[in-house]
Amino acid sequence: MNLHKEVGYFEALKFFSFSLIQIIYGLLTFPHLRSIFLNILGANVNLNLVMMNVKFFNWHQKGPKALTIGKDCFIGDETLIDLYDNVILEEQVTIAQRVLILTHLNVGYQDHPLQKYFPKKSSKVVFKKGSVIGASSTILPGVTIGEKSFVAAGSVVTKNVPANTLVGGVPAKIIRKIK
User: Fold this and answer.
1) What's the gap between Cα 75 and its chain centre?
2) CA 64, CA 45: separation in Å to the nearest integer?
3) What is the count of structural domains for the chain?
4) Euclidean distance between CA atoms 175 and 115, whole angstroms
5) How far apart are CA 143 and CA 162, in angstroms?
6) Rounded to whole angstroms, how far apart are CA atoms 52 and 24?
7) In the chain, what is the straight-line distance between the N-terminal and C-terminal CA atoms, in Å?
8) Which of 4, 32, 60, 112 is catalytic?
9) Cβ distance 88 to 125 under 8 Å?
10) Crossing angle for the helix pair 9-27 and 31-40, nearest 10 degrees?
């Protein structure tokens, strides 16, 4: 495999540029400054939110413009968000600590022996108004978390969660409806 042939020089330069932007983002210690910086970079982030020490990766794909966060949201420490595709948080979404939000799956480069079985794919992740994601949960690509739904801590969400529902487990399953 020739990395420069598969990735390309422009993509490598873009990756390097966004790596520098990620370093600058990491130096911003106050949540409000992070929100302003993300908006400057093209994200649609409401300034009425609390975003702790949140990390992003795949800035060089869709990057900050893939991020939409509504008002009155909270995103906890060490949450990791994949910006390969869109991530949308409607109003009053709470994401606890160490949550992993994935928007793409890829086993490796084009010549990886598993590519034909697991082709690269990406899809947006949506958190509807009032949803809550428990600590250390993983949300997979293409998932929508329904309005006023709760994902229990440590869950792996592989499919859409209906509105007003508590889900939990690996993979996450419906535990009960929330009235």
Assistant:
1) 11
2) 10
3) 1
4) 35
5) 11
6) 15
7) 54
8) 112
9) yes
10) 150
**166 φ, ψ to 5°?**
-100, 125
Task: Check if the beta carbon of residue 3 is closer than 8 Å to that of residue 24.
Answer: no
The 10s digit of each residue's pLDDT in 124-135 is 999 999 999 999
Q: Which amino acid is at 74?
A: F
The CATH number covering residue 78 comes to 2.160.10.10
Closest residue by Cα to residue 50 from 4, 93, 2, 88: 93
Name the token pair of 140. Answer: 């997979």
Please confirm, yes or no, whether 60 is among the known catalytic residues: no
Which range of residues forms the domain containing residue 26? 3-177
SS3 90: coil
Strand, coil or helix: 13: helix
CB 37 within 8 A of CB 24: yes
CA triplet 14, 17, 20: central angle to 5 degrees? 150
Predicted confidence (pLDDT) per residue in 16-43, tens digit: 887 788 888 888 888 888 889 999 999 9
Half-sphere exposure of 139 (CA within 13 A, CB side): 35
Element containing residue 94 per DSSP (H, E): strand 94-95
- For 30, other C-beta atoms within 10 Å of its C-beta total 9
